[in-house]
What we know:
Shape: globular
Strand content: under 5%
Largest sheet: 2 strands, antiparallel
Number of strands: 2
Distance between the termini: 4 Å
Number of domains: 1
Order of helices and strands: HHHEEHH
Amino acid sequence: MATAALLEALNGMEESPWGGWHQGEGFRPRDLARLLRPYEVKPATVRLSETETPKGYKREAFEDLWDRYLSEPPQAQQAPQAAHGEGDVADVADVAVSSGSSNGWTSEHAEGEVERLGAKWGGAA
């Protein structure tokens, strides 16, 4: 994926913590490269078409990180629930929150986003 497309998607996120960087412009290519450097993810030339080869990031560079940091947590067992009308609490919906990462994304979600953004911007992720 081209760096420009990735930055546009990241900077377009409404509640992003980097939205105020650079007087509201958000991430720049150097910012992204600096933040990814500790994870050994580096920009490279990516081929998007026969004539288009911008700097960007290859999917393979992120796959190990997705596996490591966005893995699914083990399923916690739920406590047995009292039948309706037998407990002290009114009906409450069972809600499972993914806590596998700091942002709640699973590796499948991250991979899906890369595929979606790649398709949107017409390039290979």
